[in-house]
């Protein structure tokens, strides 16, 4: 497609890392901590919101769901604790072809930045579990960029930190509509949705995907094509 892309910003859970329901399982622990019983109408409403906002900063999701800051922080701590337990128990794996795709992108002279809606503590837990501490040029979480998705902050922070000279030389890839919004709002030339995670092609295209791929494994060929 183009050899002009110099920076590739990749989402983690659902794009390069298998989710396998871990976010929803950890959310149930957070809801339980706040006294929301599984199976009732309120729990289902909250779960639907979590699914719709996959990719957004998790603390932002909990602020929407629980209102008061102290309740949102309690929910977020419970979520992170449950997610960490799942990762530590071995329920964390790379999606097929993801590591190889990152290697191909970097071998072609492109910078690769991994981004997430999780906190730095959770992001680091995942990277350590996968042995990915050095796999990318940079990793970013919302707190390190200003705002999380769907704002463009993480992509633009990646541009600044890697000294990329134009937003038109950026490709963004992710599995959620929020990833697509982030990419389009940042001015990226390529905003690629992948079908290995939360949202389907209709949502990805509605939120600005320039391309929809079966998986991130197809991204190097798209950029080199």
From TrEMBL:
One of its GO terms (cellular component) is cytosol. Keywords: Hydrolase. The keyword Hydrolase applies. GO terms for molecular function: phosphoglycolate phosphatase activity. Pfam families: Hydrolase. The keyword Hydrolase applies. It comes from the Bacteria. InterPro entries: HAD-like_hydrolase_sf (IPR050155), HAD-like_sf (IPR036412), HAD_sf (IPR023214), PhnX-like (IPR022468). GO terms for biological process: DNA repair. NCBIfam families: PhnX-like. This is Phosphonatase-like hydrolase.
């Amino acid at each position: 497609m183009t050899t002009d892309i110099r920076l590739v910003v990749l989402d983690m859970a659902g794009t390069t890392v298998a989710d396998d329901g871990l976010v929803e399982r950890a959310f149930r622990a957070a809801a339980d901590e706040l006294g929301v019983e599984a199976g009732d109408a309120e729990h289902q409403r909250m779960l639907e919101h979590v699914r719709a906002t996959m990719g957004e900063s998790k603390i932002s999701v909990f602020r929407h769901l629980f209102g008061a800051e102290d309740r949102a922080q309690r929910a977020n701590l419970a979520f992170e604790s449950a997610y960490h337990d799942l990762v530590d128990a071995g329920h964390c794996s790379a999606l097929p072809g993801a590591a190889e795709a990152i290697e191909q992108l970097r071998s072609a002279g492109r910078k690769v930045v991994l981004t997430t809606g999780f906190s730095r503590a959770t992001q680091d837990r995942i990277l350590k579990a996968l042995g990915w501490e050095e796999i990318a040029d940079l990793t970013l979480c919302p707190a390190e960029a200003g705002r999380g998705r769907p704002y463009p902050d993480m992509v633009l922070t990646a541009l600044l930190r890697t000294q990329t000279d134009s937003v038109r030389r950026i490709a963004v890839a992710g599995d959620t509509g929020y990833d697509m919004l982030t990419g389009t709002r940042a001015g990226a030339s390529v905003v690629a949705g992948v079908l290995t995670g939360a949202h389907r092609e209709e949502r990805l295209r509605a939120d600005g995907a320039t391309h929809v791929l079966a998986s991130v494994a197809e991204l190097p060929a798209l950029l080199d094509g």
